[in-house]
Amino acid sequence: MRNPGIPPMMLAMSTPQVIVIGGGGTGAAMAYDLALRGLGVTLLERGELTSGTTGRHHGQLHCGARYAVQDREIGRECMEESAILRRIASDSIEFNYGLFVALNAEDEQYAGTFIPACEACAIPTRLLTSKLALAMEPRLNPKLRLAVQVPDGSMDAWRLALQFFASARAQGADIRNFSEVIGLNLVDSGQAGEGRRVTGVTVRDIRSGGEYELAADLVINASGAWSRRVVGMAGVDIPVSPSPGTMVAVKGRLTNMVISRLHPPGDGDIIVPQRNLSIIGSTQWLAEDPDSIGVPAEDVKNLLESAAEMVPAFRDAPLHAAWAAARPLVGEAGGDAGLRSLSRDFSLIDHQSDGVERFLSIIGGKATTLRGMARITADRACAQLGIEAACRTAEKPLLPARSFYKTAGERSA
Amino acid sequence: MSRTKITFRVFRCRAGEPGSERYEESTLPVEEATTVLDVLERLSRKDRTLMFRHSCHHGSCGTCACRINGRERLACLTRVLDLDSRVVTIEPLNKLGRIGDLVVDPADFFREYPSHWQTLRPSEANPKATPPQELSAYTRLENCIECGACVSACPVEEFLGPAVLAGLNRERLNRQDLELAAGKRGVSKCQRALECSRVCPTAVYPARHIQELRRKLNKSS
Lengths: 413, 221
What we know:
The complex is a heterodimer. Chain A is an alpha/beta fold. In chain A, about 30% of the residues lie in helices and about 30% in strands. Chain A folds into 2 domains: about 15-55 and about 160-240 and about 330-405, FAD/NAD(P)-binding domain; about 60-155 and about 240-330, D-Amino Acid Oxidase, subunit A, domain 2 (D-Amino Acid Oxidase, Chain A, domain 2, 2-Layer Sandwich), CATH 3.30.9.10. Chain A is built from 11 helices and 21 strands. In chain A, a hairpin with a 7-residue loop joins strand 10 (about 180-190) and strand 11. In chain A, helix 2 packs parallel to helix 7 and helix 2 crosses helix 10 (about 370-385). Chain B folds into 2 domains: about 5-105, Roll (Ubiquitin-like (UB roll)); about 110-220, Fumarate Reductase Iron-sulfur Protein, Chain B, domain 2. In chain B, helix 4 crosses helix 7.
């Protein structure tokens, strides 16, 4: 930290306080990163942790191959971040690699674009004959022409997030579920003009029904598809729309590896096995309200059909569950032009540009890159607070998910 | 699509407020695919104070376990019409501390768990498959999703509980584990009611694990 002239006790007393709104994967990684840098952190989530979008994601640990052709930087980031997660959160990851399968001549031709693009992103690939691929995954469509092996994996969305929450809490972060932010508290910033500054939030404790205020030096909105509602409390509007996607799980683990169709990204082209299930996803549409997302019946049928093209056993496997997750889609006006790479996938918005200081929004991104998004956002938070502290979240393994309840404070649920 | 009207009785309570327990009734139309979790989400849009846990919506996280018409189930995997009942009663799990409405305290469940226990194990899918050369074997996450259903359904008190004993049986037993299993609150308490295996949503069959563990203990003593 700066201010070397201040005695240590004063420093402790003036530890900057940051409030993170939203208990999804991004909020989890955010709280851990900030706490490791020595900041005071309170995370507020209106329901159970990861009850929004995070828990419902497909469960793929992306090595980046899916994005390599369209966007090298995102491919590279996914490769780096997936390798870090495998190191720090191995308890929540089934790391069995993935196969991109070519089922027709067009797919086969796409390999010529796909493999060099992966190489350019430092994603290791291995070209496999259909015989080798079928030896690895006997339930693949026997008509497959070739396959490309990449370091994909499956993850447990809930337990990966809990590992971050557990580690954040062990560093002193206060993680409060069933705590809904119902207001952002602002003052005139004292600068010339109409600038305002966020000084904290008003919270409703769902448990008791009571309301209280919480002061902060900086507030970070990590509420994803619910962002419009949260920043609206500061009189700010950002173009975020819930953009749900459907996933369908069948009973039985049909493959061990993640199976993707070797063609440009589209609907229903990734099968992620997890535990004793196989999950096909996804689709994408636009919704009005992130709290009421239904599953379109035609999605279920279409997804199962495209899954069966890659793994015919999908056709006979009993249906287990169908659900939808509301990804946040950020319109063009959002985002920070000054950011590189990941920013094309997620938006870090400094609401200073909306006339509100000490207020950041971090929206979008992938479950695989949650740590990287938190690093970039925490860098910005520290710069605003005048703190010099490097990111340390890649250094050591996270605590096991169960530890979250073993270090439970009064507020755990 | 046909819509049937079902009456839901949802248990409500506030922690630390004796007498706050009550059942709140609502009648809603449901469709074939509507799950109990869908209904809870719908009710919470009207009343933000309704407390329930949920995350993955496909039976992998284990947070939404509750008692539905008296039996432990995952709300996300329970289709309302499959219950074949005009009235559906939704209550929190038994035996765990109550935090509010349908939410129980998971810390009560995890207290007995050694945190170092492995969550990954070898995958049994396609046993003749050759894994990629980088791996010695395919792995997958353990079947037990730690939802607490078995603990709630078990009739035995002062007991480590089915989930922990099943976990002990999966682990390579060290001395500490053996002492835990053979202790006063260990396998000897099991009354073979088999409720745990009946309610387990991921087919762990804890009762079978307890039986195996009993045999291992007999052998080692």
